[in-house]
Each structure stands twice: as C-alpha cells, then as structure tokens.
C-alpha cells in the first residue's frame, strides 16, 4: 500500500516520542542505564496511550548494539530489524486471537532456546487479559523463572481480569490518559511536518473527542484531512467527530437561560436535521454545563475543560447562570441520558428534556434572603441577652414568684419557632375529616394563585388537621415554618385565596414537623385519659357486649335494644 495511516507513520520510535507517559519512560530509561532489566513487565492503561509502542522501544533498547543506553539508536541492524519486524527473537503475540492454551504452549516451547540475532528474546503479549485460565496457568511457571535471555512484556486495558499470581510476578506500569494539550502539541508537530493547513481550534476539538488516546486523535485527524478541502477547519472537525458546534451549544444554553421553549425546540430540530446523534449531543451538553461549572469555580484552569472553548458568548452565559441551576440542569440531562439508553425513541426524551430545561427554576426553598437572615440573627441575639439577664437575676425572680419565673426562662431558652399549642389543641378537638378534605381539594389551586416566593414556602408543607374555621399547616423544616408565620403578608394571601375558593375564612396555625408529632401525641394521650375518666362513671357493660368490642372494635359494634 502506498499510503499509511498517520498513527502508523508517526508511531513513537524513542521514549522521548511517547507523549504524556514521562513517569513510565523515565523509570525504564534509568533501568536501562543501570542495567536493572526485569524479566517481566505489565503495561496497563486506556487504549491509544502508547503501551505497545513503549514495549517495542524497550525491546530495541535492550538489544541495541550500543547498549547500555537510555534510547535505542534506530541505526544499528538490531534496531532496524526490530522496527521492521524481521527479527524473530522479538515476538509480538496477540492474545485476543490466540487465547487458547495450545497456542500459548507453542510459544513457551521455544522460550528455552537462545536468541539467534540479538541479546534478548522479547515476548510482547498484547491484550493479555483475553487469555484463557489454562493459558494463564501455562504462562505462570515460565513467567516466574524464565531463562536469563527472555523478557516478557504484557500489555492490557483491563488488568482486573488478569490473575493476581501473574501480576505479582511483573513490574507494573500504569499508562495515563494523555491530556488534550499534549495531544494538540503532538498533532501540531505532525501537521507542520506533513505540510497540512489546520486551524488550532480544530485540533483542540479533535483532541477532546479523542478522550485521552493519541491513536484515536491521529485517526480523527487523518479523517479530517481527507474530508477537508484546503485546510482543516472547526466545521470539518465537528463533522468527523460527530460533535455539536460551540455556537449551537451556546444558542441552546441561551434558550434555557431565557426560558424560551420555542427557540430551544427549534435549535434541536436543526440539530437532528443535520444528522447529529441524539446520544452524542446530550453527552456534549452535559460536558458543556460541567465545563461551565468548572469555569465559574476555577476560571484559570482552562486545561480542565473537556468540551468548550472559552469564547465571549460562553463567558456571558456562564456569568448569568447561577450555581444551583447548573446542578439541576446536569442532574436532569444525566437522567435523560440514562433513559435514552433503553428506548427506541430517543428523540422524544430529548425534546421532553429541552422543555424541562427551559422550565427549570432555581431552588428557592432552601434559601433565605439577606434581610430575613439579618432579622433572624437579631432575634437570636435578643433572646441570648434576655437569657443572660435571667441567669444573672434568677434568684431574685424565683424568690418573688418561683412559678412565674420558670415559664419565661423556659420560653426564652428555646431558640427557634414556638407554635401556639393551646390554639392547635382547640383545632384538634373540633377537627373533622370533611373540613380537612375541603382544604386539601383546593390546596393545589390555591398555590397556583400565590406569588412564586410565597408558593416556594409551601413546597414542603401540607395541611394536617382542620376545623370549621381554622387549620393546622405542617412544615418539614422549622426555618420555613418561622419564615412563613412571621410573614403577615404571606398569611393574609393564603387566607384570602382559600376564602375565594371555599367561601370560608380560615385561621392558619403553623407547626414544624418534629414538634407536630409531639403535640399530636400529647393531645391524644390527654383525650384517652378524659375518655377513661368519663367511662368510669358509666354503668358497667354486659360481658358479651364488652367481648364483642374487644374482638371487632367499638366503632364496628352497634347495640340494638
């Protein structure tokens, strides 16, 4: 073949050419210079990060005629023969297609023979995790005590599938994903050497689409060069990688920010019309908001951004979107991505997600305005001052009126909201299920009439008991209960809205959830005691009637004379 792919032409021939793996190459070079070569190595890492290339460079370095050296000379007969694959003493074995024990024994039978052309026999076993258990067992003994002229180099992307007995007999090197900037620098060198015109933004787009693999990046670059006319542009890179353009993502994010559903759906329609994959788009959109969050948190760490290019439009959108909304958007997009994996109609889920994104509101229920916070802190300070005064003047007050001094001290020592227990008990005495159902049936419609700030206070609140002219409103959090009950305008708005819907003007009594449970229990126990006292004055029931009530419950027993 006259043409070779870029990743084959530019395959590293020296350790210095292995990009982004300095922690591995430095260790191997020092071992070569000090002549501390191990009998077995395990190279582990993601695809396209240089494992097999590093293995072949190591094989050349140990067999170079100028050894000991830190880099192969690539000029002697040994280096050239290993590079061309003409030296049989350096064997590259593919475990994916030769996983059976018979093939492994075939290789191991020749281990004992001395090399014919070079100093060391080097066995490079690629994708070693694909070997069968029997093949691993056959390899184990030879790997533990090989002849002095043999070196094994095992390469894998899934080390967890390799038996621990094999791993423990090897020096393990973990190859990392290559950073996008390192990939861009390498591709710049290649396009300069080949004379291809290429935009830097296009190289960045390809590098980010490669996800840390140099081979993937060079394959995409090869495709982009073939697709382009005179120079590789950003549009060419987007077409080849299947990614969505930065301008499109900015346009959609702006629609979400402005709550413009029509514009968002129109942009999505345009995306699908151009044949973009919905799954790839939603992944790009998640990374877009992820990069937005990182940019707002640490604007100087541009290298940590996976998807976006820092243009002016992106910066403006990022400044306008609050943190809590970014969290919501990422959570919603992630859930949509999971749902799309199990459906035959991903477009529908995508359209629903865009509508939800455009209707997302920032979380208000856990927030307090600065004015409310100042009021709350002021009240706490006042209570602490009163408590300190009571502690200081306590003995004098107790002498004058011991019972009267105890109650204020207890009341002021508690920080937080105190419900009106007496009025709540009155409501419970007269409460009926019909009154409660009447309020609950109009509750959703009533909330719809409130302002957003008032409706937000009721997000985790519900009516739990009601009489003819009052009802008890239970809040999940005490702070929300205090904020609502201290707000006269809120209480008046809720009262008027319910009056318009039910025709009755109700008094609202707020209570936090934890205090409601104790108030309700105390009320019920008091009622049982009162009922017990009243039952003692009644004439004794006949035995068979009492037994029937015990068996079926008093409410199900009817006595007919």
Summarize the structure.
By secondary structure, the protein is of the alpha/beta class. The protein has 28 helices and ten strands. Helix 12 runs parallel beside helix 15.
- Tally the helices: 28
Query: What is the H level of CATH, i.e. the homologous superfamily of the largest domain?
Result: P-loop containing nucleotide triphosphate hydrolases
Question: In the CATH hierarchy, what is the class of the largest domain?
Answer: Alpha Beta
Principal-axes shape call: elongated
Ranges where pLDDT stays below 50 over 5 or more residues in a row are 363-367, 395-414
> What is the average per-residue confidence, as pLDDT, rounded to a whole number?
82
Q: Kindly report the CATH topology of the largest domain.
A: Rossmann fold
In total, the number of strands is 10
What percent of the residues sit in helical stretches (DSSP H or I)? Answer: 55-70%
CATH level-two architecture of the largest domain? 3-Layer(aba) Sandwich
Strand count, sense and closure of the main sheet? Answer: 5 strands, parallel
User: Which percent range describes the beta-strand content?
Assistant: 5-15%
Q: How widely separated are the two ends?
A: 110 Å
Structural class of the helices, strands and pairings? alpha/beta
Number of domains: 5
| Whole-angstrom Rg | 38 Å
Strand order of the largest sheet: 2-3-4-1-5
Descriptive notes:
This protein is α/β, with parallel strands linked by helices. It has five domains: 6-174, Rossmann fold (3-Layer(aba) Sandwich), CATH 3.40.50; 180-241, Helicase, Ruva Protein, domain 3 (Orthogonal Bundle), CATH 1.10.8; 246-358, Up-down Bundle (Zinc Finger, Delta Prime, domain 3), CATH 1.20.272.10; 368-415; 418-537, GMP Synthetase, Chain A, domain 3. The chain is built from 28 helices and ten strands. The strands form three sheets. The chain has a five-stranded parallel β-sheet, covered by helices on one side. Strands 8-9-10 form a three-stranded mixed β-sheet, sandwiched between helices. Strands 6-7 form a two-stranded parallel ribbon. Strand 8 and strand 9 (470-475) form a beta hairpin. Helix 9 (200-209) packs parallel to helix 11 and helix 12 runs antiparallel to helix 13 (261-273). It is elongated and about 110 Å long. Residues 363-367 and 395-414 have low confidence and may be disordered.
